[in-house]
Specification:
Structural class of chain B: alpha+beta
CATH class of chain A: Alpha Beta
Strand order of the largest sheet of chain B: 1-2-9-6
Number of helices of chain A: 3
Number of domains of chain B: 1
CATH architecture of chain B: Orthogonal Bundle
Strand content of chain A: 15-25%
CATH superfamily of chain B: Cytochrome P450
CATH topology of chain A: Ubiquitin-like (UB roll)
Helix content of chain A: 10-25%
Number of helices of chain B: 14
Structural class of chain A: alpha+beta
CATH topology of chain B: Cytochrome p450
Number of domains of chain A: 1
Shape of chain A: globular
Number of strands of chain B: 11
Oligomer: heterodimer
Distance between the termini of chain B: 24 Å
Largest interface: A-B, 16 and 20 residues
Chain lengths: 103, 381
């Protein structure tokens, strides 16, 4: 069982205690405000943007090339930016916290 | 379709510069061409405003409708408030029950066209599909689609647009009166009950929402559906690939939308004198966000004139970008994805018989935007 917490822009914390699949899908299943995932997870829309807490960045990893190309089009993206559809939840990420920040 | 010589009429113009100085309705329009510039301008609503009733669509539409369209012809913060009113309706495609109803509808319609032998893809499939699917989105009886189908591919821009525009407005006013007998929380009753800044919406506002719901997602969906059918007829290998790799459906859907870009561009008004990449735009004049050019920008898209089912990333702007991103996008995406999936489950191949391209002719470019007519045979499995 892996625990995952989304912190929305309004400060609301939404936790899934048995998180499986990619983060965008988990967010949608939990009605997390600010995660839309319009394109269905194929690196087209950037509507599932999150910022990873600094202490988790190494374990979550850097964006892949496709993801990075898309993020570079977004003025508000920074070094903590990830598209949640491209992060697969694993036991290693148990306890992960990400901030939802619509671009 | 991908062999068509007219699919990117903006390639040479992008090489010449970031802006095409063109004209519509006798007025200058500075058309922004590159993907990054278009995205940036789409988000800069204070410089490039949508507070321009009848002028956000280009050419302008005063003679085609009596009301300003909502929420598209407004700026934040009012725009955000207006948009919130109808978001619950436009997000219904995310619900499983809605998706199952869409699947049943498309299954039924594909089965029917297989039985017909040769079809005219617009009148026999794409137009009725768009109208019947819209009854799901608006939450009205499916029989209402029979009325809408008679309005044709583009309610406002076909030859008798002004007449049909009036007919559509009259239809909507009656719908606001009789909608209480339709399913709960239908689009019209939602607007009847909605409030804005503590008051109910006016008739003009309600009509403005309805006008956009009917006009905005109509020819766009029809054109994209026809492009998909024509492409799969010309490229049977792509239909086979989708059959073998169903996980590609979302990716392929985005790529078809990029390639189709059924809305060529959209207008924004400069409230004050503005310089746009070196082009001077006087106050109250328009710029255009050229989605069709941006989506073929080869500084972003590798070989943009190719349809690649697995294109990734695919940061297209066919649904717009920023605050005004297409409200109907979840519905349109569901139609496209369901269509692709059902074609792989029900259809062995599509035979292209004949077709006549639909060409947008303007002062400075000619763009093929899908088909005036398209004859196909859809062969069952």
């Amino acid at each position: 069982m892996a625990k995952l917490t989304f912190v929305t822009e309004s400060g609301e914390e939404i936790t899934e205690n048995d998180a499986t699949g990619n983060l965008m899908e988990i967010a949608r299943q939990n009605d997390v405000d600010g995660i839309i995932g319009a394109c269905g997870g194929v690196c087209s829309c950037a509507t599932c943007h999150v910022r990873v807490k600094p202490e988790w960045m190494e374990r979550v990893g850097r964006p892949g090339e496709d993801e990075q190309d898309l993020l570079e089009l977004e003025d508000r993206a920074d070094e903590r930016s990830r598209l949640s559809c491209q992060i697969e939840m694993t036991e290693e990420l148990d306890g992960l916290v990400v901030e939802v920040t619509p671009l | 379709m991908s062999k068509c010589p007219y699919h990117d009429p903006f390639a040479e113009k992008r090489e010449k510069g970031p802006v095409l100085e063109t004209e519509f309705d006798g007025d200058p329009v500075a058309m922004i061409l590159g993907l990054k510039d278009v995205r940036k301008a789409a988000r800069d609503w204070s410089t490039f405003s949508s507070e321009a009733p009848f002028r956000v669509p280009i050419p302008r539409e005063e003679h085609l409708r009596s009301v300003r369209q909502f929420p598209i012809e407004s700026d934040p913060p009012e725009h955000s408030e207006y948009r919130k009113i109808v978001e619950p309706a436009f997000n219904r495609p995310n619900e499983l029950e809605y998706q199952l109803r869409m699947r049943s509808l498309i299954q039924e319609m594909i089965t029917e066209v297989i039985s017909l032998g040769s079809i005219e893809a617009i009148s026999d499939f794409a137009l009725p599909l768009q109208s019947r699917a819209l009854t799901l989105l608006l939450g009205v009886p499916e029989s209402e689609a029979d009325v809408w189908i008679k309005w044709g591919v583009h309610v406002l821009r076909d030859r008798d647009g002004p007449t049909k525009g009036r007919e559509m407005e009259n239809y909507c006013m009656k719908a606001f009166e009789k909608c209480s007998s339709w399913e709960e929380n239908n689009f019209f009753s939602l607007l009847n009950e909605a409030t804005f800044h503590g008051r109910f919406l006016t008739d003009e506002e309600k009509l403005g929402f309805a006008n956009l719901a009917f006009a905005g997602g109509r020819d766009t969906v029809i054109n994209t559906v026809c492009l998909i059918l024509a492409h799969l007829a010309h490229h049977p290998d792509d239909l086979e690939r989708l059959r073998k790799e169903p996980e590609l459906v979302n990716c392929a859907g985005e790529e078809f939308v990029r390639f189709a870009t059924p809305l060529t561009h959209i207008g924004r008004k400069c409230p004050v004198d503005t310089e746009v990449h070196g082009v001077k735009v006087k106050a109250d004049k328009l710029i255009s966000l050229c989605w069709a050019s941006a989506n073929f920008d080869d500084t972003v898209f590798d070989k943009p004139t190719e349809i690649r089912l697995d294109r990734k990333p695919n940061p297209h702007v066919a649904f717009g970008n920023g605050a005004h991103t297409c409200l109907g996008a979840p519905h349109a995406r569901l139609i496209i994805r369901t269509l692709l999936t059902q074609l792989t489950e029900l259809v062995s191949s599509i035979t292209y018989l004949s077709g006549q391209p639909k060409i947008e002719k303007t002062a400075d470019y000619e763009r093929v935007n899908s088909f005036e007519s398209l004859q196909l045979r859809v062969n069952g499995l």
